[in-house]
């Protein structure tokens, strides 16, 4: 079956003009504003080198596909569905948002929004409930990216009367037809996703790009912390930076560690302790003290107390389900 034509109208002026028979790749590149999105991705996200490189590649591929279409070399829309694998808190959702924006800039989706769904949004509990649920989510995601978190929960072979396969069937059809401007990204743990693909080869064959998100190194987590703290108008001093580096070393070894998400949660608790300290001490303080995080704000964490193993953090939902 031939796919739909690319809709150049979605990205007016994207492809470089070809009056003289030449294709202006540079102009098309500039017109697409791809570099803005990529620059934003670079500045907003620490590390993730291999992920950023893959996204750059995909952007080039899409740009060339657009030019080839302009030159009447191809009419089919390239397959855009993807899988994002990696541990919790490695940036999958954030990158998916950027990807939606990129696809929008390049004219592959009309709206460029991201809809995040899990099994519960797609699968019903009773006969006849699944198809309407799945279709409703698909409708909301049209013109953007549908991000299915922990996609493998759609498939539960141990449960005979599971309605997951109904949702899978509908998703596969939409992915195959590509009639709509909708891109589906399946996300989750790498190993589980691989097993899921083994049992559902239809998904595997419809996915063009598999991107793996590595865990962050401790230095990267510290850089992420600095970025988050700065964005919120706080700052470490030398001692508290050191304290946070020590905190990370311990936290990484503990259960439910979730990369950048744990860093974000830790910062929330640090802000709470800073506020407590300032209110407790009272008096007049310079503005800078409202910004500064003290080492004590970090050292009060349970992570530093021997014998106590978990920092007070809600474990990600997947941990409870597994
Ligand atoms: N490389 C990074 N640099 C800066 N901030 C980051 C980075 N990666 C993730 N974050 C931040 O960490 C938080 C968690 O990231 P995100 O939700 O994208 O991860 P995820 O892989 O989708 O996690 P989960 O599987 O738990 O949903 C977000 O607030 C995000 O902005
Ligand atoms: Mg996520």
Note poorly predicted spans. Answer: 1-9, 317-322
**For the terminal residues, how far apart are their CA atoms?**
40 Å
Main sheet attributes: strand count, strand direction, barrel closure: 5 strands, parallel
- What structural class results from the helix and strand content? alpha/beta
Q: Any ligands, ions or cofactors bound here, and which?
A: adenosine-5'-triphosphate, magnesium ion
Helix content: 40-55%
- Tell me the strand order in the biggest sheet: 2-3-4-1-5
Helices and strands, in order, run as HHHEHEHHEHEHHEHEHHHEHH
Evaluate the radius of gyration.
23 Å
Strand content: 5-15%
Total helical elements: 15
Mean pLDDT: 88
- Strand elements, count: 7
Written description of the protein model:
The structure is a single chain. It is globular, with a radius of gyration of 23 Å. Helix 2 (34-44) runs antiparallel to helix 4. It has helices at 25-32, 34-44, 49-70, 92-105, 119-122, 130-141, 164-177, 190-199, 201-206, 218-231, 238-252, 259-281, 288-291, 295-299, 317-321; strands spanning 82-86, 114-117, 145-149, 183-188, 209-213, 235-236, 292-293. The model is unreliable at 1-9 and 317-322 (pLDDT under 50). It has 15 helices and seven strands. By secondary structure, the chain is of the alpha/beta class. The chain starts with 24 loop residues before the first helix and ends with a helix. The relative contact order is 0.11. It has a five-stranded parallel β-sheet, sandwiched between helices. Bound molecules: adenosine-5'-triphosphate (ATP) and magnesium ion (MG). Magnesium ion binds next to helix 4. Adenosine-5'-triphosphate binds next to helix 4, helix 10 and helix 12.
């Amino acid at each position: 079956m031939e796919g739909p034509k690319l809709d150049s109208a979605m990205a007016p002026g994207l492809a470089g003009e070809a009056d003289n028979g030449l294709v202006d790749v540079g102009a098309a590149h500039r017109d697409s504003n791809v570099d803005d999105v990529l620059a934003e991705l670079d500045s907003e996200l620490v590390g993730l080198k291999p992920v950023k490189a893959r996204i750059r590649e995909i952007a080039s591929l899409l740009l060339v596909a657009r030019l080839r279409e302009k030159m009447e070399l191809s009419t089919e829309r390239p397959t855009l569905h993807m899988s994002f694998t990696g541990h919790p808190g490695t940036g999958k959702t954030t990158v998916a948002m950027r990807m939606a924006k990129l696809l929008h800039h390049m004219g592959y989706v009309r709206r460029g929004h991201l809809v995040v769904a899990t099994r519960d949004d797609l699968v019903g509990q009773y006969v006849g409930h699944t198809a309407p649920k799945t279709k409703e989510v698909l409708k909301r995601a049209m013109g953007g990216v549908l991000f299915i978190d922990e996609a493998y929960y759609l498939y539960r072979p141990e449960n005979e009367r599971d309605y997951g396969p109904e949702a899978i069937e509908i998703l596969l059809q939409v992915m195959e037809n590509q009639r709509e401007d909708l891109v589906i990204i399946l996300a989750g743990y790498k190993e589980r996703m691989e097993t899921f693909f083994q049992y559902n080869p239809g998904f595997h064959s419809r996915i063009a790009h598999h991107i793996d998100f590595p865990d962050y190194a401790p230095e990267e987590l510290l850089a992420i912390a600095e970025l988050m703290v700065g964005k919120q108008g706080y700052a470490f001093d030398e001692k508290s930076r050191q304290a946070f580096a020590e905190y990370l070393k311990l936290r990484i070894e503990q259960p439910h560690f979730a990369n950048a998400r744990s860093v974000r949660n830790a910062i929330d608790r640090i802000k709470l302790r800073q506020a407590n300290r300032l209110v407790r001490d009272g008096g007049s303080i310079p503005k800078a003290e409202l910004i500064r995080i003290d080492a004590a704000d970090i050292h009060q964490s349970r992570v530093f107390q021997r014998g106590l193993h978990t920092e007070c953090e809600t474990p990600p939902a997947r941990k409870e389900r597994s």
